[in-house]
Amino acid sequence: MSAPLLDIRNLSIGFPAGKGEVLAVNDVNFSVAPRELVGIVGESGSGKSVTALAIIGLLPPNARVSGEIAFAGRNLVGLPQRQLRGLRGKEMGMIFQEPMTSLNPVFTVGDQIVEAVRAHEHMSLKAARDRATELLDKVGIPSPRRRLDDYPHQMSGGMRQRVMIAIALSSSPKLLIADEPTTALDVTIQAQLLDLLNGLREDFGTAIVLITHNMGVMAEIADRVVVMYCSRVVEEAGIFDLFDRPQHPYTEGLLGSTPDMGETAHRLTTIRGGMPNPADLPPGCLFAPRCDKAIAQCTTAQPPLFELGDGQKAACILAPKLQTEGAT
Amino acid sequence: MTSLSDAAAPPRFLRTRALVRRMFANRAFMLGFVLFGFICLATLLAPLITRLDPNALSIRDRFQPPSLQFPLGTDNLGRDMLSRVLYGARLSLWIGLCVIVLNAVFGVLLGALAGYYRRLDNILMRIADALMAFPAVLLAIGIAAALGPSAVTAIIALAVVYIPRTARVVRASILVVRELDYVQAARAAGATDYRILMRHILPNCMAPLIVQLSFVFAYAILSEAVLSFLGLGAPPTVPSWGILISEGRSYLREAAWLTVVPGLAIAITVLGLNLLGDGLRDVLDPRMKVEQG
User: Fold this and answer.
1) Is B273 part of a structural domain of the chain?
2) CATH number of the structural domain A6-91+173-326
3) Per-domain residue ranges for chain A?
4) Residue A46 CB neighbour total at 10 angstroms
5) B180 touching chain A per CB within 8 A
6) How far apart are CA B73 and CA B64, in angstroms?
7) What is the rounded CA–CA span in Å between residue B91 and residue B240?
8) Is-contact B280 B29, C-beta < 8 A?
9) Most CB within 10 Å of its CB: which of A90, B59, B70, B77?
10) Within a domain: B3
11) What are the TM regions of this chain, as residue ranges (chain A) (predicted)?
12) Which strands sit side by side in the sheet containing A74-75, from one edge to the other?
């Protein structure tokens, strides 16, 4: 793997709650290489969105961050807002879950793209408009020049998400963070957008961090997947390894609860229970109370991320053993 | 676009033509527009409507009831009431206009600071609370009395009274808009605070502000009349509506038109502005719409 573009080391993010503090992200490590597409999956509240906000520097001011977020060799943790703002939009972009509300309703789509283009680069209005047209064309909006003068409400959700992508790509960022970009869209549009994101990776050389809770979306385009559970990384693996031989029972559970087109219909498995209250965590492995394979040892200590070869890592004490036995 | 799909589309006040059409389809707005428009037009065209000097004395014509020569009668010094009311409107409307301009500028400024920079919020809003704790007219009287009676003090007093209210309205809508996705998206795109405030937040807070200002206009005219009535407004040489009522009060029994006419002028203006504001609110901010039968 070449030098990582984004390298997250021991990242912990806490929020004050009552007297103490609740960790939304706990000792998270992962890295993203240039042009790589890394997916982060996990339930709601697993800390994936907070991680994304930390990368782009938009955490609420009461968040307490420790660890390191190295972006192109520069640690972003503790960097003053002024410098972070220079990075945002220029070196990294972000697209959000809700395309319907992510555009300012009182300005035309063209105005907003032009604004983004000119925010980081000095160019004439006309040149910026040409660039905006080009961007809309790139993200697959037909007759882009005419569409520039549309207001957001004149566009569908899928088109608005394309516009958001165009805005995020306006300065050819090195990193694009996509926080559930397809969740609010219907399935056919989802597939088109995923294709688009994948294609842009080639065209713009952008690395993408894709956050989703949809394993199907992951399977479609991710190179590598980071599985988060309850503020921690529980498994990290290449996409094929993850689907072929998941090592953490939680990952297995996620995969088991995803419908599979290829196989004959069977009842989808579910993961019983819910995530523990972050203010009142169980001892040992955080997943143990919901895990079918849990043994006595599981409740004594939090397992570290075991290296399992081929870049696969899992935080389960059973994982290394399973590996040697060759079981799945 | 047909009117059907217009109704379904979100409220966008920059689509001017559709907006204007919807405004004039609103009965309250229409009526308010006609009433207030009538007053404004009469004020502007005062020299054409009457050729009589509002301050010309004519002792022979004291207390003339309305007649052909004096359509609205004359006062205790024989001055023509029609021209006095028309020229008085100039001062009343001018004061109202100055008050809403000051309100718009300082209300938006303070409201934006309080709503966007949360640290200033507590300080600014407590000051606003303190000012709002006084009954509006009482506070205006206090300020006007302290500064000495003149048109300018009336404007300052009324601006001070109403700015906290406008600032509150602006702050409230900023608190809502600042949490919206497109503001977060603008932040993620590296926009500066100033840019986010000016481009993304304030333009989306205009509707409640416009509505608020139309009401402030009405209140300002009303309160100005109160101040003038109490002798704390413009000097009596310039007839404002409040002064006219104040002067006419002594002759209420003999010459009721002296108070009724300027009173009606105030009532029509305030009613017109209130209807205008109600209509604007319904059109610009349908979520706040009051159920109509």
Assistant:
1) yes
2) 3.40.50.300
3) 6-91+173-326
4) 24
5) yes
6) 5
7) 6
8) yes
9) B70
10) no
11) none
12) A20-32, A6-17, A64-71, A74-75
The pLDDT assigned to B48 comes to 85
**Residue A138, number of CB atoms within 10 A of its CB:** 18
CB proximity list for B224: less than 8 A, separation 6 or greater: B92, B95, B96, B154, B158, B233, B240, B241, B242
Q: Is the dihedral of CA A175, A181, A187, A188 positive or negative?
A: negative
**In A, which residues are within 8 Å of B15 by CB distance?**
151
Report the chain A residue with the minimal C-alpha distance to residue B177: A104
Rounded Cα distance between A287 and A43, Å, is: 12
Cβ atoms of residues A73 and B162 within 8 Å: no
- Record: contact A96-B184, CB cut-off 8 A: yes
Number of domains into which chain B is organized: 1
pLDDT tens digits along A131-169: 999 999 988 899 999 999 998 988 988 899 999 999 988
The boundaries of the domain holding residue B278 are 30-53+70-288
Residues 191-250 of B with CB under 8 A from A: 191-192, 195, 199-200, 203-204
Q: Is residue B102 part of a domain?
A: yes
B242 close to B263: Cβ distance less than 8 angstroms:
no
Q: Which residues are within 8 A (CB) of A274 and not within 5 positions of it... i.e. 6 or more apart?
A: none
User: If phi over 0 gives left and psi between -120 and 50 gives alpha, with beta otherwise, what is residue A273?
Assistant: left
Scan residues 13-42 of B and list those with Cβ closer than 8 Å to A.
Answer: 13-15
The answer to whether B188 faces chain A, any CB pair under 8 Å, is: yes
Q: Is B90 on the interface with A (CB under 8 A)?
A: no
Quick: pLDDT tens for A230-279. 889 999 999 999 988 888 999 988 888 877 666 666 677 788 888 888 77
Which of chain A's residues have a Cβ under 8 Å away from the Cβ of B187?
A: 58, 88
Question: Among all chains, which residue has been given the structure tokens 């599985």?
Answer: A227
pLDDT (tens digit per residue) in B50-60: 877 888 888 88
What are the structure tokens assigned to B134, written together? 């006084």
Which positions in chain A touch B182 (Cβ < 8 Å)? 101-105
| DSSP run (H or E) holding B131 | helix B118-133
Transcribe A291-314 into DSSP letters.
Answer: -TT--GGGGTSPPP-EE-STT-EE
In a domain, B19, yes or no: no
The B residues from 135 to 164 touching A (CB cutoff 8 Å) are none
Question: Which domain CATH number covers B129?
Answer: 1.10.3720.10
Question: Closest approach of chain B CAs to the CA of A33, in angstroms?
Answer: 21
Closest among A207, A204, A205, A244 to A222, alpha carbons compared: A207
Closest-approach residue (CA) in chain A for B205: A106
Torsion angles phi and psi, residue B243, rounded to 5:
-65, -40
- Cα nearest neighbour of B192 on chain A: A85
Are A258 and A215 contacting, i.e. CB atoms less than 8 angstroms apart? Answer: yes
Three-state SS annotation for B174-240:
HHHHCCCHHHHHHHHCCCCHHHHHHHHHHHHHHHHHHHHHHHHHHHHHHHHHHHHHCCCCCCCCCCC
State the ipTM, two decimals: 0.77
Measured CA to CA, the distance from residue A315 to residue A247 in angstroms comes to 9
**Whole-number average pLDDT of chain A:** 86
